[in-house]
Design a protein that fits this description.
835 residues, alpha+beta, six-stranded antiparallel beta sheet, 22 helices, elongated
Length: 835
């Protein structure tokens, strides 16, 4: 007996030692072999990139997962109750592992042989979500239990629940309760009702099967189960339960609602961020605040769309996109399904014609509605025979549309009108001339049909909108706005192939001696070319670099006087900003600041600022490009372009503080208007991606968009005239000769001069000078019909480079810009156009 007792005692001691060793082993394993739980305090949840306007309105979201983390104290209590009632009733009582729950799961396994229940607590689910896979094995379950114990030891219950509700997948790319609320209900989570809380709480068990978009019947059953559990646990009373369980299943997919349409801005920002931070931008929760003003962006969107649609209507109706056949009761549903698959392009909605009358058509829309288009929405649709000719005006609806035609319709007034997706493209960019901030940008008619941003990547010829830079170079060299240049024929020969270039004005007329102010205001080509020849190409090209143009963009020929450089609209905006801000070169930028997921600013833009007096010492100052006097004189002349010249349509704005210049390239391939006041620079462009004639000038195809934009952008803004700088004086001159005249001369005109270049009272500037080529041939610019073998840079003279405004057929133009006539076109002098 004593021996037996000793054996029992030894067995007990050994068992205790083994248990102690096992406990210490488990504790050691938990502490040192399992993952570091402290990291959960600073866990990084994958959050998409959010891009906002400067006034904090959402532009775009980039990232595969929709997640909006919220702290525990912002999670509604009813939602927490719904989750606890369904997932873990004893959550606040257990230490990470619910032994009764595990026991039930074990019994279920023994009775059925299947792992129907896992007995997992919320803490165990957090352990699995952050550290383990979803593979159902005993080894994983044991590790899950141990990690859960460690989590409970390190973190508070509220923190664990916060992690669970922000990490859990709810289906349809929604991670976390806030994202789920937005996806299924289009609301913030704190705006949901009890039945909606119950719906969300029931999804995590099987997100792909129990979400209300995938299986409404299963989702409704699951929601009601959650409501029952909440009632059983005492979280809701009888009345609340009865009301909630009878609510309809009102969930539907809600895409993330952006507040401002600026897809070209969003893509520009995304590409810049990717260069800065790499692929982490899609998961690190960056918030980017751009320089874009939401009000100006909306104005740009409207003006570009309206202008392109108006242009498209002026050039006729091209006919239906396709035809579904003859409508009948049996095929209406099939037509609806087909229409659903067609995109809505910038508000232009696809529809199918189901009935025509003498003056109306009735169309079927993708939502099943039948809509009548009245004659007022149809009468514009003259058939486009070809690019140059439109058919007669339609007399009835049957001449416009046939049964089954697939057309596009557009909201108009109280109804709809017939429309079509434009083939031409357009863009508009506006910047703050004082620091280069991009305030609005529209890179094309519709981003979903074309991602090409014509503002930043389309290098096109600017036509006469480039002339102000040539005239600025002349002022810098001592010429004045009263300088007279002979507007007379000139023939320039290319010695390499004996081709001749005869630049001409818009109507093939020549006006004789012309003051520079008038030449720029009326966009005289010949005067511009003669002026450039007098300045010399090397000097002028060096001067153009002051505005931000690259030497590689500028052809080495006299044709640059007519705008044959290839530049982007954004570069044009940057260059015109030099005039607008009084002579400083600013750099366009679009990212103002970046915040990380902890809402800390990790990047703040420090733009170059135009400032000449009383400047903030903390600002980075922009370099002066031209003198304030030069900028003022050019602005004064460009003001006259609107008041008396090629852009008089803009007078309707009744803004004497505006200045600008039209531009049209050879064969009307590109149309421009660039204009500004001291607070805002805007550039509008129109053209085809594959260069072809617009059959319109800048004053018709681009200026209306600029006018509409500026009207909205400057509404309510006070006039802001450019201040006359010191060093500028106003002198009365004779309008014909440009000579200084008596102050009492009733026929005299006041003209501005820079002080070093004020003319003497009796003197006048006579155009003198020659063009000399590398072979020693010279041409006297005073001689009518003068001829030169080449220009001063030993180039061809560009026999066909961009001009301002050729007519379609007879080589004459309307009011904008001018024309060029050529006898022979050397291959290397064709108009440069690129995309």
């Amino acid at each position: 007996m004593n021996r037996f007792i000793k054996l029992i005692r030894a067995f007990i001691i050994l068992t205790l030692l083994l248990c102690t060793a096992l406990v210490f082993s488990v504790l050691y394993y938990i502490e040192y072999e399992l993952p570091d739980i402290d990291a959960l305090n600073t866990v990084h949840l994958q959050v998409p990139l959010l891009i906002y306007t400067h006034d904090n309105k959402l532009i775009a979201v980039f990232g595969e997962k929709r997640r909006i983390p919220i702290p525990y104290d912002q999670i509604p209590k009813p939602l927490i109750n719904a989750v606890l009632a369904t997932e873990d009733q004893r959550y606040f009582q257990h230490a990470g592992v619910d032994l009764p729950g595990l026991g039930r799961a074990a019994i279920q396994l023994m009775l059925t042989g299947r792992k129907l229940q896992g007995g997992s607590t919320i803490t165990m689910q957090v352990a699995r979500t952050f550290y383990l896979t979803s593979q159902k094995t005993f080894a994983r379950k044991i590790r899950e239990i141990l990690i859960a114990i460690k989590i409970e030891h390190k973190l508070k219950k509220e923190k664990i629940l916060e992690l669970y509700l922000n990490k859990t997948f709810f289906g349809n790319r929604a991670y976390g309760v806030e994202a789920a609320a937005e996806v299924y209900y289009g609301k913030h989570v704190n705006e949901l009702t009890i039945d909606q809380f119950a719906m969300l709480a029931g999804i995590p068990k099987a997100p792909s099967k129990l979400n209300p978009l995938a299986n409404q019947k299963a989702a409704l059953k699951r929601r009601n189960h959650v409501l029952t559990r909440m009632h059983d646990e005492g979280y809701i009373d009888n009345a609340t339960f009865a009301k909630a369980i009878n609510e309809p299943l009102n969930a539907s997919y809600h895409d993330l609602q952006t507040e401002v349409k600026a897809p070209y801005v969003a893509e520009l920002v995304r590409s810049q961020l990717e260069q800065m931070y790499g692929d982490s931008i899609y998961t690190d929760g960056f918030k980017v605040f751009t320089t874009v003003d939401s009000r100006l962006q909306q104005a740009a969107n409207i003006s570009v769309r309206d202008n392109l649609l108006a242009y498209d209507q002026r050039h006729g109706y091209r006919g239906p996109a396709s035809n579904f056949g003859i409508p009948s009761i049996n095929n209406m549903q099939d037509w609806e399904e087909k229409l659903h698959k067609l995109p809505v392009v910038n508000g232009l909605e696809p529809a199918a014609v189901v009935e025509t009358t003498h003056k109306t058509i009735t169309v079927l829309r993708a939502n099943g509605d039948l809509t009548i288009i009245p004659w007022s929405g149809l009468s514009w649709a003259r058939k486009q025979i070809n690019a140059d000719y439109l058919g007669p005006r339609p007399r009835n609806a049957e001449q416009i549309a046939q049964l089954g035609d697939v057309v596009h319709i557009l909201p108009s007034g109280n109804g709809f009108m017939l429309a079509q997706i434009p083939k031409a493209e357009a863009g508009l960019v506006a910047i703050n001339p004082n620091n280069g901030a991009i305030l609005s940008m529209v890179g094309g008619f519709d981003y979903q049909t074309s991602q090409l941003n014509r503002i930043t990547t389309a290098n096109r010829q600017p036509g006469s909108s480039f002339k102000p830079f040539i005239f600025s170079a002349a002022l810098e060299k001592g010429y004045t706005l009263a300088t007279v240049i002979n507007d007379a024929p000139i023939v320039i020969e290319n010695p390499t192939d004996n081709s001749l270039w005869r630049p001409q004005n818009h109507n093939h007329r020549f006006y004789g001696p012309t003051r520079l102010r008038v030449a720029l205001m009326e966009s005289r080509n010949v005067v511009s070319i003669r002026l450039l020849a007098l300045l010399g190409l090397p000097y002028t090209i060096n001067y153009l670099e002051k505005f931000g143009f690259s030497r590689t963009q500028i052809p080495q020929s006299l044709s640059i006087a007519l705008g044959t450089s290839t530049i982007t609209p954004l570069q044009m905006a940057q260059a015109y900003a030099v005039f607008a801000n009084g002579g400083f070169r600013v750099v366009p930028f679009v990212i103002d600041s970046i915040k990380n997921s902890q809402d800390q600013v990790i990047y703040q833009a420090k733009p170059l600022v135009a400032c000449s007096m009383n400047c903030n010492p903390n600002l980075a100052l922009a370099q002066r490009a031209i003198s304030p006097q030069n900028a003022f004189l050019i602005t004064s002349t460009l003001h006259d372009v609107i008041q008396h010249g090629t852009a008089q349509l803009a007078k309707k704005l009744n803004r004497p503080d505006l200045a600008g210049k039209t531009g049209t390239t050879q064969s009307q391939v590109d149309a421009w208007f660039a204009g500004y006041n001291p607070d805002l620079v805007a550039v509008a462009w129109a053209g085809f991606d594959q260069p072809q004639s617009l059959h319109e000038y800048g004053a018709q195809a681009a200026l209306p968009a600029w006018i509409e934009f500026m009207d909205m952008a400057l509404k309510g803004k006070p006039l802001h005239m450019m201040e006359e700088p010191s060093g500028v004086v106003s002198i009365k001159i004779d309008p014909q000769s440009g000579n200084r005249t008596a102050a009492t001369d009733p026929n005299g005109l006041n003209e501005f001069f820079m002080l070093p270049h004020v003319p003497d009272k009796e003197s006048s500037y006579e155009e003198t000078g020659t063009i000399t080529d590398n072979q020693g041939h010279t041409t006297d610019l005073n001689a009518p019909g003068s001829r030169s073998d080449d220009d001063s840079s030993n180039n061809d003279g560009s026999s066909d480079n961009s001009t301002d405004n050729n007519n379609d057929s007879n080589n004459t133009s309307a009011t904008d810009d001018n024309a060029v006539s050529t006898e022979k076109k050397p291959d290397d002098t064709q108009p440069a156009t690129s995309q």
